[in-house]
Design brief:
There is one protein chain. The protein is of the alpha+beta class. It has two helices and two strands, in the order H-H-E-E. It has a two-stranded parallel ribbon.
Length: 77
């Protein structure tokens, strides 16, 4: 929607980079950039939002497993 994203890409990247279990956070603007990044990463697991269940996950053919992170559509007031 018009009010999304709530946080800037740099803010989201900073938050994710602060998690010690995350090795790298990469941003992209085109599907082809994402696919190339996943292909070159040699990652074994890809984590995406649960809103992608049942949909095409770009780059999933280059990983062993796709995990879906629970996301909610409700906003807190």
């Amino acid at each position: 929607g018009d009010s999304r994203p709530i946080n800037t890409v740099d803010d989201r990247k900073t938050i994710l980079e602060s998690i010690r279990y995350i090795d790298e956070v990469v941003t992209f603007s085109k599907d082809s950039e994402l696919e190339k990044c996943v292909m070159n990463s040699e990652a074994s697991i890809m984590v995406v939002g649960s809103d992608y269940k049942g949909k095409r996950v770009i780059g999933s053919q280059y990983v062993d497993e796709v995990k879906f992170l629970l996301t909610t559509k409700k906003r807190r007031k």
